[in-house]
């Protein structure tokens, strides 16, 4: 299959990863119903074992997982060359297993879908904070992620052979990349991310996500095909980088509905905020037609902290914003903020 998102409609909706359900089957049904690109669910409210980091560290020698998602690292056993066995029968992959079982029955085969995996920088920092030394933490993290992606991508390709996979690496801790005490230089980060994304391209299109205000040029330097970012005024300052990214075929998944604090913002207000950002980007030279046609929509982050009912309200807001994106009749409307 062609590894492309060309068939995805402008403003198509997708999730960020985590869902609030305790029932894995209910989570899969929710995802298939509420997102244009269904997302393979993670269910951290069901079990801390389904956190991004814990999933990626399954089978890593020297890493033991305790209750509530805690980690213990035996430094003497860490080995970046050691094989990693991603056991999909563990408690870490209940949501994943439910997706592989139910998605074909729910008509997903032939639809593009998304799944999310922790990035090597964030996973390396997690190991570092758990006691791993610098010279091992990021190498072990990279090895674990490559093995993890190979296993999950192969299973999903077998279960949904006619679907296009969007594999997004989640890097929340890259928000601190430009800090003086960050343990890696930006070019080393770009190389690390490029490596895991190149491996993942075996299975589909690859992207990067950060739900905070990251150093976006550094993330783009790594070469993602999709950049998932919050729709905030700060992105206007990197309009030039985003414009070049889209000129080269990149897609932007805008975190168009906030997920911090109480949810009470209407689709109208969220659309007004997003279109206001787009208008400022257009004023700085971004092509409005390209901006509209190469945008996807998501919540700013996962939905696990809400109830399923509130999560559905957020998805309804996303759907309404998506309709507005698709209904934009001309580039001129966008320029004037209509």
End-to-end C-alpha gap? 38 Å
Main sheet?
6 strands, parallel
Number of domains: 1
- Write down the secondary-structure element order: HHEEHEHHEHEHEHEHHEHH
Overall mean pLDDT stands at 91
Q: Helix/strand/pairing class, anyone?
A: alpha/beta
Strand content: 5-15%
CATH class wording: Alpha Beta
CATH architecture group name: Alpha-Beta Barrel
Low-confidence stretches: none
Briefly note the CATH topology name. TIM Barrel
Show the helix and strand layout.
Blueprint: H1 24-34, H2 52-56, E1 63-65, E2 71-73, H3 94-102, E3 113-118, H4 120-129, H5 134-159, E4 165-170, H6 186-200, E5 204-209, H7 216-221, E6 226-230, H8 239-247, E7 251-257, H9 267-283, H10 288-293, E8 295-299, H11 308-326, H12 331-335
Parallel strand pairs: 3-4, 4-5, 5-6, 6-7, 7-8
Antiparallel strand pairs: 1-2
Helix pairs in contact: 1-3, 4-5, 5-6, 9-11
